[in-house]
Design a protein that fits this description.
It contains eight helices and ten strands. By secondary structure, it is α/β, with parallel strands linked by helices. It is globular.
Length: 270
């Protein structure tokens, strides 16, 4: 009986190991009640995950648009991963707590699209924040908004998704607010901090034109974050005409945003 149990566990482990990061992320999303849809940008395809409220969106409601981090572009900081999709579904854990109409706008070549045309590993490495990536995400979102119009939009970006939120928001006239979480708001400063090669083929939010001051900015930082240190957010906000930093003393890059997310949303609702 014991041998049978061990054999069963080994089989389960092997089956789980065979799943790609995209499959595991998707399975988690479906298990939590989200729906997925593939939508066309230009030149990329994108996956969008929606909560129940988003599918019943009223034009007068506020739409929350979640943007995930960079996921896992590299393996052991040496080799590019074939599938860059996040191994940690933190963004889904946050969105799961959101009672507002909410969607997760997938990045190009993530969520199982890494082999599609014109995907290439540069779009999750040196060009992860490039103009072509931003343009395609904007177009995919605009396509979705044609079918699900909303008067007000709040972008919620985690880690590298915070950088993309700042780059995408100026193209979406309904943008009311940006909330970033442990976000890479200055990609040049971040690369220098870690000793990485700069993102020479990407846009840097810190060097773009200042956002419209009518767009409220809230940047949440963990004071124990060693992946995106707090100093990067401080420097970014100093250059903005309108931006607020919220400090979380015992938080790091991954912990413990999902523990406080519902209360944070309630606080920043107005």
């Amino acid at each position: 009986m014991k041998i049978q149990r061990i054999t069963f566990l080994v089989i389960i482990f092997m089956l789980t190991a065979c799943h790609t990061a995209s499959q595991r992320f998707h399975n988690y999303a479906i298990d939590k009640g989200f729906q997925s849809k593939q939508i066309t940008g230009k030149p990329f395809e994108h996956i969008i995950y929606t909560n129940v409220a988003a599918n019943k969106l009223n034009v007068q409601q506020t739409l929350h648009i979640y943007l995930d981090g960079d996921g896992s572009p590299w393996h052991n900081q040496r080799w590019l991963n074939k599938d860059p999709t996040s191994r940690n579904p933190l963004i889904l854990k946050l969105m799961q707590q959101d009672l507002k109409p909410s969607i997760l706008l997938g990045r190009p070549c993530y969520h199982g699209l890494n082999d599609s045309i014109p995907c290439h590993s540069r779009y999750w490495s040196s060009q992860r924040y490039s103009q072509i990536v931003v343009d395609s995400m904007v177009q995919a979102l605009q396509h979705w908004l044609v079918l699900h119009p909303a008067e007000n939009i709040v972008f919620i970006g985690y880690s590298g998704g915070g950088a993309l939120a700042l780059l995408i928001a100026p193209y979406i006239i309904q943008t009311q607010k940006i909330i970033s979480i442990a976000a890479n708001l200055d990609t040049d400063a971040w690369s220098q901090y870690h000793g990485y090669a700069p993102f020479s083929e990407s846009l840097n939010p810190a060097t773009q034109a200042k956002l419209n001051p009518a767009i409220k900015q809230f940047h949440l930082i963990g004071l124990e974050d060693r992946i995106v240190p707090a100093i990067i957010a401080y420097h970014f906000v100093e250059q903005q005409t309108h931006g607020v930093i919220r400090e979380f003393p015992k938080f790091n890059h991954r912990c413990c945003w999902d523990k406080v997310w519902r209360s944070v949303l309630e606080e920043l609702e107005n």
